[in-house]
Amino acid sequence: MKCTLRQAVSNGKMKGVAHRVVTNSTDARTTAVFFVSPSMECIIEQAKVLVEAEDCGPLYKSFRYKDYFDIHIGHTDGERFYA
Predict the structure, then answer these.
(1) Which InterPro entries does the record cross-reference, listed alphabetically (predicted)?
(2) CA 45 to CA 22: how far, in whole Å?
(3) Cβ contact 21:29 at 8 Å
(4) What is the DSSP letter of 81?
């Protein structure tokens, strides 16, 4: 399960990246944050419309959010999320 929730739902179209900020003194910076918090028993799978449109099948197996959370979010080393 080496993917982010965004990758799993978008069938690989949207990738997750490590957050890095480069600031400068002349340009304003705007940040938008989106939180997704499904129930622990929620099944995460590709959006069917994307799989059907691409005619390639799902790239990831469906999984329980709790399993994802335990592996990726439950650890604080920062590496597991993007591994």
Answers:
(1) IPNS-like_sf (IPR027443)
(2) 34
(3) yes
(4) T
- Total count of domains within the chain: 1
pLDDT digits (tens, 9 = 90+) for 46-74: 998 888 887 778 888 999 999 988 887 76
Please give the Cα distance from 68 to 7 (Å, whole number). 13
Q: Nearest 5°: phi and psi at 3?
A: -160, 165
Are 15 and 6 in contact by the 8 Å Cβ rule? The answer is: yes
Instruction: Give the closest residue to 6 by CA, choosing from 26, 34, 27.
Output: 34
Alpha helices in the chain (DSSP H): 5-9, 48-54, 65-68
Q: Does residue 30 fall inside a structural domain?
A: no
Q: Which domain holds residue 42?
A: 1-15+37-83
pTM for the whole structure: 0.66
